[in-house]
Amino acid sequence: MIRSTRAGRALAVAGAVALALTACSSASDDAGADEETTGGGSGEPLRIGTILPVTGSLAQLGPPEIAGVDLAVKEINDAGGLFGADVEVEHTDSSDAENASVATGSAQQLISSGVSAIIGAASSSVSKNIVDDITGAGIVQVSPANTATDLSGYSDFYFRTAPPDTVQGDVLGNLIVSDGASNVGILVFNDSYGTSLRDVVEGVVDEAGGTVVYGTSGEEFDPAETNFATIVADAIASSPDAIAILSFTNQTPSIVRELSAQGWDMSKTYFVDGNLQNFGVEGDIGFPADTLTDAQGTLPGAYPSEEFQGRMLEIDPELKDYSYGPESYDATMLVALAALKGGASDGETIQANMAAVSGADGGTDCTGWEECKALLEDGEDIAYQAVSGIGPFNEANDPSSAFIGIYQFGPENKYTFSRSEEGEVPQG
């Protein structure tokens, strides 16, 4: 189910910078989902780790994601922290699936540090490499950006604040069709992120009476590919009237240059969250002016308000965009609220209360740490109003609903917000 809104939701947050983690956390055997909130309970300090892309093919997502975590931690600590102590956070690198040992090492580092929750990874493929180690250790993992459909319900300890590809793929497919395309080409890499999203888009196009003329199963390209001349030529030869690029940022600039060189009308090109960025007209990823004029892209999450953007910039003045910053903020807030509700900071307590504080069982709407904390301390159930616009967790630990933003490129090869669509996340 999709409904359009040009305004999105009103978003309000507070914010700035994060701190380092030391020592180990201990579990409490007395807390659980059915326990009434203890207010300023006797739990150990909450220690959170992150595994987010500082390097690799999704490195453009690292700064806003890290800033989102740091913003939430700063807000909590400015209000007195949790259980009488500051929330602590340790940041580590996830890199990408081509450098899997980086995330594996980061996961082992954080497990040894005794964190109770880990925010990350951004890449679904990276999460698949580390999720068993993390959740098997009784640590809650909350990804702000995983979208692969086969991660739905993966573990009781795995959550995400980004919707599965069923939502973005539906919006993207309908966008392409509504723009008048009936023969669609898809340049997709052979990665679980790309193929999962491709399958949803293909289903939408087929259902609308169109055809995916290139990029169906068996026509993916290797994630390590660097020469796209033949791939692009084959796609254009299939006579598409739209082309979607489903890849990460390390492949996308080369693909765009090849499409342009071979005469493709770039206004009929579509990007997704894995490669949507402000390319500009200079540098290694820039293109000549007007290269991407009127091309479009989709990005999960409600469009962040100017207030939220301003507070993010207080954390990191160098931010160039805000992709998955709201989702990272929400992930951190939900973890802390779950610990508060359960009265302890161990992973089992957090896991048992995540759905409840998200509003899965109803409760009083609340925004931000101070308002939600006050309600919990008064013994009330809460429904945390997510900055990213997601609905409460469903039984698969996915958001029950989410916004997908639609963006359009201008002459300087930078994108601006056009509108957003809200979709419900199917289960089963």
UniProtKB/TrEMBL annotation:
InterPro entries (alphabetical): BCAA_transport, Leu-bd, Leu_Ile_Val-bd, Peripla_BP_I
Cross-referenced Pfam families: Peripla_BP_6
Keyword field contains Acetylation: no
Residue ranges of domain Leucine-binding protein in the record: 45-362
Superkingdom per UniProt: Bacteria
Keywords, sorted A to Z: Amino-acid transport, Signal, Transport
Signal peptide: 1-27
Entry's family note: Belongs to the leucine-binding protein family.
Protein name: ABC transporter substrate-binding protein
Organism in which the protein naturally occurs: Cellulomonas avistercoris
